[in-house]
Amino acid sequence: MKKKLIVLFLFLIPLMPVITMADEGMWLPILLQRNEKDMQKKGMKITAKDIYDANHSSLKDAIMLFGSGCTGEFISNQGLVLTNHHCGYYQIVSHSTVENDYLTNGFWARNKNEEIPCKGLTVTLLVYMKDVSNEVLNGVTNNMTESQRQQIINGNIKAITKQATENNGYIATIKPIYYGNQYMMYVSQVFKDVRLVGAPPSNIGKFGGDTDNWMWPRHTGDFSMFRVYANKNNEPAEYSKDNVPYIPKKTLKISLKDKKEGDFTFVFGYPGHTQQFLTSYAVEQIADVYDPAIIKIRTAILDVYNKAMNETPAQRLRYASTVATIANGWKKWQGEVKGLNRLDAVGQKQEFEKEFTIWVNKKKDRQEEYGGLLDAFEDIYKKLSYYKTEYLYISEAGLASDMTKQAIDILNLIEISRSDTTSEEKVKQQANKILESLNKYYSYDYGTHKQVDKKIFMETMKIFYNDYGKSKYAFLREKIDRDYKGNSEKYFEYIYDNTFLTNEKKARKILSKYKKSKVDKLIDDPICEIMSPIWGQYKKEDRENLLINDDKLDSLYRVYVGAIMQMEKEKDFYPDANLTLRVTYGNIKGFKARDAVNYEYYTTLEGIMQKEDSNIYDYVVEKKLKDLYNKKDYGRYQNSKGQMPVAFIATNHTTGGNSGSPVLDGEGNLIGVNFDRNWEGTMSDIIYDKEVCRNISLDIRYCLFIIDKFAGAKNLIDEMDIVE
Ligand code: ARG
Ligand code: GLU
User: Fold this and answer.
1) Which of 391-405, 428-442, 650-664 shows the lowest mean pLDDT across its residues?
2) Of 1, 240, 354, 646, which is most buried by a Cβ count within 10 Å?
């Protein structure tokens, strides 16, 4: 039976009838006609074509993929981009020094000459998208093996993208949707000259910090601004001082109008990753095993970094970006586990799988095609859990410290040193490369960093060993029992203190004169003694098995999802998020969080004053903002009640990547910037619950108030197209 499953075939999904939809869904702009009526019924005044039109300018021309994981939008015809503070965070931090601390104090370019080029930052604008399922699957038949199938698909993709990018400077990517039942092509322009224009101080842009992160009610002024530059022909170009501000085909109008509960909104952006079709086996592993393990490891890491960050401003800057990333997932997964359990997601999935089985068993040919599917899933998930758990403990705990990350490079050096086919020259080059990266690691107060890094190593290795390594690696257990009487911490401390990696002098000596014959010096190092076998096994066999099983899963999901779409013919499906442009829509709405707790739909500056705590970095409110508050100097940005609105929530179905996405009203005007979800709703990547799932947006009026009244950057306000 299982063999049958590997023999695959494709379904071209028929056009679905329009039916009323829930708030769930991340819709393909190219097929938005299907949602148009529903959107208009909910309050949209514009048309699907106003949102996406390949031939005329439409809202899509104002939207971009910002960097590689956020969204941004044009808010002036001089290429001015609005996105989140946390999306520009890395850039803001990397241009900051203790003397010129833009992270803490904010940054405002008073004219274009003061804007700061951001090397490596790109923005990607979609020119058009196209359903290329028929072309990609051309030549694929039902009785091919998976690898034959993949070969044909890869060949087709190469040819199609080549044709789409010939002589036009575009890039084209083709991505599967519905696990390869269909394929979409995205043809885009990539702009490489992007400059930092403005960012509020951290106590506005990240107000509430990681404590408030993922939470409602929220008071974060989470925005920053950049500008896209182009060559004289308005085309993408490498950075040059001769470049000029890009003139977008479309810029968003900004609306200062009041919002009411129930008002229609939509979000247009680049959601990254959702998994709505997961089977019960997968959801169970996430909720019971993977999420809890990562949360535990990251709790230990964050404890160390947070303490260090509170010690000195220099350390705050050094770890800010790393910690923001680690803390973000850590907190989200906690919400996810709670949500999955509260909804009994596993039970719901099992219920669905029962229905699916009944549907399958109704017909003989279905039985033949899909009869073994669920068993096959169960089987693969069981196998995978071995490899996934290994990967999780190695990547999250084993490689948490900077020292162990460097050790991986040393292991690679050992490997090539032992190989007959690698030249002495190559080996030398590699050693020099490692030395270069070690230079960064040793530079700038290494003594202090070493203490922090050692703590990270000690804490993570403790978890690694007790929760995983002790039972998995006999060599390690025996060594610790024999030489350290079972005291693993002593052993790990010995490693950290004695590896040459934490001894700058020794490291330079070994690496600067390194040649193949000296490989034993590396092999005998204490860190290699432990990492070699662990990394060796993972790299040699286990990683391969992880990938093979993941591929098998994808194939199974292709069949499964194809079958579900047949089974639920009436339902309008949307493909899982895959970091491509999507529209999601809903209404501004509060929610009931738990017994007797009802949340309103917007927050105000009043709430910032209530949260103020001058002793906590993330809750400091600056005098300037307080003065504006005391004088109620809100100008045209206040709401009809005279309040300064800060953030609001709505039922739009969003996920990571939607950060920075414009939140638009029924007329297509910009009313907010998406930046988060509520903690109660973070399981929506797997299972959506319209009662509690909410996206959190910055009210555009607070954003403009900060730019105008707080920072006095009238130059930027003047560029914008504001409707009152
Ligand atoms: N939770 C938001 C997102 O997923 C914002 C993260 C940045 N903020 C923070 N406090 N770490 O990206
Ligand atoms: N902050 C997230 C991001 O960076 C958006 C929040 C979410 O996951 O919905 O994209």
Assistant:
1) 428-442
2) 646
pLDDT exceeds 70 at position 19: no
What pLDDT, in 10s, does the model give residues 589-645?
A: 999 999 999 999 999 999 999 999 999 989 999 999 999 999 999 999 999 999 999
- Tell me which residue has its CA closest to atom 8 in ligand 2: 656
| Count of domains observed in the chain | 3
User: How many Å lie between the centroid of ligand 1 and the Cα of residue 425?
Assistant: 45
Between helix 146-165 and helix 543-567 the angle, nearest 10°, is 80
Query: Do residues 549 and 670 both lie within one domain?
Result: no
Same domain, 464 and 328: yes
The last residue of one of the domains, among 252, 268, 295, is 252
Q: Residue 21 has what pLDDT?
A: 53
Same domain, residue pair 246 and 308: no
Examine the domain organization and report whether 531 and 596 are in the same domain: no
pLDDT of residue 8: 37
The pLDDT value given to residue 18: 38
b/e sequence 92-120, b meaning 16+ C-beta within 10 Å? bbbbbeeeebbbbebbbbeeeeebbbbee
Residue 385, domain member (yes or no)? yes
Q: What is the pLDDT of residue 306?
A: 96
Q: Do 532 and 602 fall into the same domain?
A: no
Residues 521 and 669 grouped into a single domain: no
Ligand 2 neighbours (beta carbon < 6 A):
70, 654-659, 675-677
Confidence band (pLDDT; 50, 70, 90) for 446? Answer: confident
Q: Which residues form the domain of 494?
A: 280-553
Task: Please give the angle made by the CA atoms of 660, 661 and 662, to the nearest 5 degrees.
Answer: 115
pTM, two decimals, is 0.92
Lowest mean pLDDT among 15-19, 33-37, 73-77, 280-284: 15-19
Amino acid identity for residue 246 in this structure: Y
273 within domain boundaries? no
Q: How far is ligand 2, taken at its centre, from the CA of residue 332, in Å?
A: 10
Inside any domain, residue 151: yes
Catalytic residue among 96, 659, 661, 697: 659
Cα(148) to centroid(ligand 2), Å? 38
Q: How far apart are CA 555 and CA 411, in angstroms?
A: 34
Does the pLDDT at position 9 exceed 60? no
Beta bridge partners of 190: 124
- Domain identity same for 398 and 465: yes
CA dist., res. 174 & res. 577, Å (int): 14
158 C-beta neighbours (distance < 10 Å), count: 11
Average pLDDT, the chain: 95
Q: H-type helices in 343-372, by residue range?
A: 345-361, 364-370
Distance CA 439, CA 442 (A): 5
Catalytic residue at 659?
yes
Q: Are 285 and 292 in contact (CB under 8 A)?
A: no
Does 688 have pLDDT greater than 80?
A: yes
**471 labelled catalytic:** no
DSSP readout, 621-639?
A: --HHHHHHHHHT--GGGS-
**Residue 113 forms part of a structural domain:** yes
Based on the domain organization, do 498 and 600 belong to the same domain? no
Active site residue 85: no
Residues 579, 250 contacting (CB under 8 angstroms): no
